[in-house]
Amino acid sequence: MNTKTISFPSLTLTEKSQALTADINKNATHSVPGIDVNTGHSIAEALQARLQGLNELALILKHAHWNVVGPQFIAVHEMLDSQVDEVRDFVDEIAERMAALGVAPNGLSGNLVANRQTPEYPLGRASAQDHLRIIDKFYSFNIESHRVVLAHYGELDPISEDLLVAQTRALEKLQWFIRAHLDNGNGSI
User: Residue 136 belongs to a domain with what CATH number?
Assistant: First the structure.
């Protein structure tokens, strides 16, 4: 297999990647007042996993938004677009909290792929019901994962706890919208 090096002015892609990688993993030598550096960095590392999960959820929601078809198209298409915006806001909140705790958040695509927590989303063009059934599982994963971080770190950092509680509440509401489309009228999905 031949590899081709793409060059930037006076810098090859490989050199550019190495230079960037060095900066990506650089953390601060401090945390927020009242939380020691090791604890702050530990909490931020747990938040990095949540940043990863929510970044992936936002991408999946946008993908489904583009690929949903069928009689429920417009309702689901528009619902998913607003959910993408809300989930992207959650990602931003988590990244900003991580930075305050002294850890550089990593939202790069390579990191997302290398540390993916869930299987690849299996659908392209498909019915609203098919997309919503799978999206429901991704919501469950993220809600459960938020709860795990809350259980382990909530008492150590009430600010991160508050952020995750608010996000969990909102994620449950967004999942409820998904499940309302899946409900058969008898309370089963």
Answer: 1.20.1260.10
Angle between helices 37-67 and 158-182 (to 10 degrees): 20
How many domains in the chain?
Answer: 1
Note the pTM of the prediction, 2 decimals.
0.86
**Predicted confidence (pLDDT) at residue 162 exceeds the cutoff of 80:** yes
- Could you tell me the CA-to-CA distances from 33 to 39, 54, 96, 100 in Å, in that order? 12, 27, 16, 10
Tokens matching residue 169: 């509440």
The mean per-residue pLDDT over the stretch 10-17 comes to 50
Q: Extract the tokens encoding 134.
A: 């799978």
Residue at token pair 């600010």: 159
Residue partners of 155: CB distance under 8 A and separation at least 6: 161
For residue 5, being part of any structural domain is answered with no
Q: Report the SS3 class of residue 104.
A: coil
How many residues make up the chain in this entry? 189
Using alpha carbons only, give the angle 124, 129, 133 rounded to the nearest 5 degrees.
85
The helix or strand, by DSSP H or E, that contains position 8, with its residue range, turns out to be strand 7-8
Closest to 97 measured CA to CA, from 146, 43, 149: 43
Between CA 13 and CA 47 the distance in angstroms is 30
Share of the chain above pLDDT 90, in %: 84
DSSP state of 186: S
Query: 17: closest CA among 115, 109, 124?
Result: 109
